[in-house]
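In the laboratory, one determines a bound structure by crystallizing the protein with its ligand and collecting diffraction data. In a computational setting the workflow is compressed into a single prediction: the sequence and the ligand go in, and a structural description comes out. We illustrate the idea with copper (II) ion.
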Amino acid sequence: MSIRKEWGEMAPAERISYTNAVLCLQRLPPHLPTAEYPGVRSRFDDFVATHINYTLHVHYSGLFLPWHRQFLWLWEKAVREECGYTGHLPYWDWPLWADDLAKSPLFDGSETSLSGDGEYNPGEQSISGSGITIPRGSGGGCARSGPFKDMQTHLGPFSRSLASLTEIPAPGFDYNPRCLNRSLNDWVASHYSNTTIVSQLMAAPDINEFQMVMDHWPARPEGVLGVHGAGHFSLGATLQDLFASPQDPAFMLHHAMIDRVWAKWQDADDNRRNALNGTNVITNPPWASLVTLDTVMEWGVLDRPRPIHEVMSPRINEYCYKYT
Ligand SMILES: [Cu+2]
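The predicted complex, in structure-token form:
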């Protein structure tokens, strides 16, 4: 049984070996063809492009939890088998650091962090939409310290508007090199990813309520960020990008926390183990098919297609992991 630990629980050397493995995936050649995917320049980008490819199916839908569970597992396998990492996937325990992200071992900008805040960008604006205004964060420019200070992101940026999207919008898979953008946002983290919200998730009586606290779909008129969105809006522009967000190395740790809470919630009651809701299309339009345990999911070049039932517990099939 492998154990996925919280970032701060890992020894400094273990953290560095993880970030070194991420940097290694950024140097390895991609499996996707660059002719068709000009922005895919590395093995790391294979994961980003795969996420872009399936974004319109695997968010705000019934595929969200199961698809990302397998995506994380494929990522963990890649850092281990292709880059020699011997640990397991770490997670970001949101409430521990929600009041002061810059002091967290994840984002303090040290060599043992995932890099910290970006340089101050006076042009960063607050974000308004769906009845909520998110004040700007404290950075807004490039991350300039820690392991990812020199990394380049290659894909995106995508527009924040989801209005009636039926195909992958511009810029698709174009090559657009930029730095890792960070803007730590304690306002988002402390309001929307605190202890109370994690307790609400764990106390959700059914999967509908669980997904509601996670993502607030359908969006509530008063404008509330689900804890999933809160993680994405806590760190800056790179992680906010619904399509290309796996370019921020914090993505996998944020989603590991989502997977952790889901797994613990599933384990708390037998009726929850195979609970699913929603469809296979973003925001669950009325014409989309409801997902079932037999709905088949895909990960492109990363994996074979799999029915949802294969991923409904961290202790079945190829899985054998748990979270601290
Ligand atoms: Cu995603």
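The mean pLDDT is 95. Keep in mind that any predicted model is a hypothesis to be tested, not a measurement.
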